[in-house]
Amino acid sequence: MKSLIFRIACLSASTAAAVACAASGNDDAPPTDTPPPNVYEGGTETTDGGSVREAAPDDATASATCSAAGWCLTALPSYPDELRLNDIWSLPDRAFAIAGTQSGSVRFLEWNDASDRWSFIDDDSQHYTSALAAGVWAPNADEVYFSLSHSNAPGGEIYYGRRPVPPATDWSWRRFSFECSVPERPWVWGASAGDVFVMSCGTIHRLNGALDGGTNDASPWGAEYVDDNPMAQLTFHGATGTSPNDVWFVGSRRESLWGPSCAVVVRKTAAGYEPIVDGTPNDDGCAQKPESASIPIAGAFGREEGDSIHAPAKDRFIAVSFGTEANNSIVRIGPNGAGGYAVSVSNAPPAMGVGLRSVWGTSEDDLWFLGAPPLTTLNDNASIVRGTNIWSDGGVFQYSTLVLDGVPNIKALQRIRGTSNTNLWAVGANRAFHKTTP
To answer: What is d(CA 98, CA 88) in angstroms, rounded to the nearest whole number?
Structure first.
């Protein structure tokens, strides 16, 4: 099949407030006032309201269940409501996912490569009538964490599950509540079974006690980082990292529900926690915080449904920014070698007509994104975009088609994750695509 290929030309800067993409691998290059135009390289295309969209394949490699790019639609368990998968955590031969439903309950699911099927692993204690699915993280195939909140109650909950030991067949669960003054989804991420973090209501909690035994009221979680700004509330959206001393926590802060927001990135290293990105929301976007070296960036690296971040290697942080009009700015942050941090930005070409959402990749030069129509907060008509070498001139964005048997995907997708380019998942509204081919 032909493919849509979009080449980019980049703009570079290294100041705190003006961030741009590194055109030659040098984050300290001087800014350019007028970047070269984005160049589109032909290919098969369809249009939708003037936007270039992925086209149906013109060869016979696609089928009713797998696209020409190798994205195969897996069958979810039968359920009366549509299962809206909000997050997924991939392992070499398994995956865990959390789904919300139209009736307001939350379901926990597991995928098994050996049986080639999804199954529910939760119990009746998670079947609320006003629950909101949040995230999932698993250190291995036998332990998993899920997080959720309630639309009509403050705070949120974390569930820790252990696989049954035969002849037992049901997973065992322990629930932990995180108090908060407002309904807010907590998020969970870890670097290992013993290094697990929960983000809730401006606080980062760390596992420092036993998970086995005790009552649901006895918490093994201790607060390690507490935001100190009561005027502009910090809402966490998730975390990513490569080790216990290379963790990036992301959130956003705003002074009112509908006011402008500032992105927040707090990094944990062996030296402790340090705010890397932060600012003071104002009418113009985001201003420098007084007496702070934090970098002010308007917008957010996530939404209520979760983060849009990934750490492909030590000292490297990649995020999709929701602070731009088209929601298509990709931000890279890393140490600048002088005790501070350099920020670079790349953008999907406007000709693609896509707003980027979730991101995952094997390296900063080989990234996968979920895409949706721009200028909307919805994720319907979702697509998958691959970006290669996007931090240099000539970098490429290219659709990885989801067309099945000639029919494009019209459903929303929320999250893309994987363990390699031959074990990738993209999940959303009644959709769980799995890619196992290069």
So the answer is: 7
The pair of three-digit structure tokens given for residue 322, joined into one six-digit string:
């929701």
SS3 126: helix
Which residues on adjacent β-strands are paired with residue 427?
415, 432
Which sign, positive or negative, has the C-alpha torsion 227, 231, 233, 234? negative
Q: Which residues contact 100 (CB under 8 A, 6 or more apart)?
A: 83, 84, 86, 106, 107, 131, 132, 133
From CA 295, how far away is CA 108, in angstroms rounded?
A: 38
Chain Cα centroid distance, residue 95: 16
Those residues with Cβ within 8 angstroms of residue 317's Cβ, 6 or more apart along the chain or in another chain: 240, 248, 265, 267, 309, 311, 331, 332, 333, 334
Q: Taking every pair of C-alpha atoms in the chain, what is the biggest distance, in angstroms? A: 68
Domain architecture of the chain: domains with CATH: 5-73+227-435 (2.120.10), 101-224 (no CATH)
Lowest mean pLDDT among 50-59, 108-117, 304-313: 50-59
Enter the pTM of the model.
0.88
Find the angle CA(230)-CA(280)-CA(286) to the nearest 5 degrees.
145
Per cent of the chain over pLDDT 90 is 64
Q: What is the pLDDT of residues 66-111, one digit of tens each?
A: 999 999 999 999 999 899 999 999 999 999 999 999 888 899 999 9
What pLDDT is attached to residue 41?
28
- Do residues 359 and 309 lie in contact, with contact meaning Cβ atoms separated by under 8 Å? yes
For residue 48, CA distances in Å to 30, 53, 266, 381 come to 38, 7, 39, 11
Determine how many CB atoms are found less than 10 A away from the CB of residue 154: 14
